[in-house]
# Entry
Amino acid sequence: MAAIAGLGLTEVGKVYGRTSFELAAEAVALAAGDAGLTLADVDGLLINPAFSQPALDLTLARRLGLRDLRVLSSLTAYGASAGVMVAQAAQAVDAGAADVVACVFADTPRSGTSSGAEAYQAFSLQARGVRSAETAAGLTSTTHRYALAADRYMSTYGVTHDELGAVAVSQRRWAEMNPVAAMRTPLSLEEYHASRWVVEPLHLLDCCLVSNGGAAVIVTSAERARDLRQPPVHVRGWGQAHPAPPLRAGGSFGLTTGAKASGRAALAMAGLGLDDVQLREIYDCYTYTVLVTLEDYGFCGPGEAGALAASGALGPGGALPTNTGGGQLSSFYLWGMTPLHEAVVQVRGQAGERQVGAHDTAMVSGNGGILEHHSTLVLTSETAA
Amino acid sequence: MSSVTRAPARRDDMTAAWFDGLRAGRLLLRACPEGHRSRPDVLACDVCGSLELGWAEASGWGSTVALAVDRSTQPATHLVVVALDEGPWLITRLEGEQVARGEDVVVRYVQDGEGEAYPVVTARPADGD
Ligand SMILES: [Zn+2]
# Structure
């Protein structure tokens, strides 16, 4: 079995004047150093490029001086990429294809003059074909599409804005205790409601941050990880699902996602049940995404996650600690590296003031496209059952 | 409030026939030998998986599944998911009179500047269309 032995995170947020390549290089070096390894020990590299230019590519290896790699690929499953990279790294290690695999993401959508939303919008505006007809009609960003998904979900189950807001408030309470988080001032439900509509039914505070930065993890064998500097975080289960439900009569658009199948697969591989999961680090591009993912994983029934959030269960002191670093909504947005980073910190027991007491088993989700791609990791400590 | 720069609708090789239809005021869908209808960019029938896809004209009638509003544009843009009567769903904007979820709409055709024509929807008149 493979384990995550190193974790690297650059400065994140309003970080200007550095390219994705420089941020990725620093993240990989930090992750290797965190593990007690050097770059010379790295013999595998998996790269997840984002949208802003220059986007990461395979030249990262050469330019970082990684000259004897046995595994090297650039891959994307959009927001599901981090979980996919870790699963592929674990398989490479298990198969003996490589001993020390670095998985890296870096992006620089923000500039001194742009909040970064434009970098993501540009991606929509490049479309041709049917997608370009949708863009011309007014669907100029990913948020427009998620707003339609959230509307279907909310209208089908009667989920309220108080319940969506409870996700934002709960995660801000975690972020208040996270020194890395961009948003650490307390948030009230009233402030949530007062935040402007981005695309109704999504308020500004339903939407993730946009951040510059880089993050990396080092995956190696569990045996080797035990001899390294940090407590091993075992990669005990993983799953992917790409359900791509056709947009047509009877379609599940907005109501359910690939989390259902990928979560089931990851838990089955880990030989664990939902009751064993002590930490939920859920991809939270929008508050709504957290709710639908918790339901798909089975932590509650369809349409019930809003009430769960409103009960306080997801926040500090709650029964189901979720997004314990503040997530993409309040901490930082580095695609799937955000939930993965927090899971590793918590499972190691290194989360300081926000450390969750029972932290042996974490479920980590990734969500890409418009709910089209999903990855799940089950990560466990050395002392997990 | 700022008006959003919207990129024009642009054809690619796969959707040339679809855009030709829109220009002529016809909404085309992919059609398989079994009579199923799929969205214009599929490579295989949504229902039976057939790769033998031609084109067939849709009625242009449907009902709304989901609604969203972009208030950053002037005027506000009302976005809709529309379940076409033939099965496939269309994502576009609603023009004119507002409708509730589940209510009937009909496809219209618009063209901005140099871009291709594209479909939008309006509330369906009470006497049909
Ligand atoms: Zn068919």
The domain at 142-209+234-385 of chain A is CATH 3.40.47.10 (Peroxisomal Thiolase; Chain A, domain 1). The mean pLDDT of chain A is 96. The CA atoms of residues 263 and 297 of chain A lie 6 Å apart. Chain A touches chain B through 39 residues (CB under 8 Å).
